[in-house]
Amino acid sequence: MIDDTCYVSCASSEDGTAVRHRQTHVDGECVCRIVASHGCCPSLQAAADGGLIVRTNPADRATLRAMIEELRGVADAVRIRSLVVDDGETATRSELVSLQTLTEIERETVERAILEGYYDRPRTVSFDDLATDMGITSSALSKRLASAEAKIMRSLFEDRD
């Protein structure tokens, strides 16, 4: 984004061999401007059926939460497709975590837990408060998170010897 012009380059074919370059004048807010306003570099991965896949690397969960909240103000839907986890202090490597195996309900539950601060240390929302905020019982939240967390952990370790 330079001034009010958005410049985009992305692969336009399934195999990624064709590259399309576009520029357009932007009135108001756009995804790239919002992502950049949070100190992140937006990378457009794909555009199809009126949706965008944008890759970026927020500095921390608080930045991720704020960015998603702002994006939800201008987009019909915002989803986290995958996360790369790297705490910067103790991690010796990063891992790409695919969220594609999660059901819609599991994905929404995990996204909400992340955005509400359930996985922050220290937690900024309690388990019971998260369940109440989501309008579900603690038992239902427990089942959803346990199922989602198990799938995520399996995906992290499935290709290891």
TrEMBL record:
It comes from the Archaea. Residues 102-154 form the HTH bat-type domain. Keywords: Transcription, Transcription regulation. It comes from Halapricum desulfuricans. The keyword Transcription applies. InterPro entries: DmsR-like_N (IPR056433), HTH_bacterioopsin (IPR007050). Pfam families: DmsR_N, HTH_10. This is Transcriptional regulator, contains HTH domain. Residues 15-84 form the DmsR-like N-terminal domain.
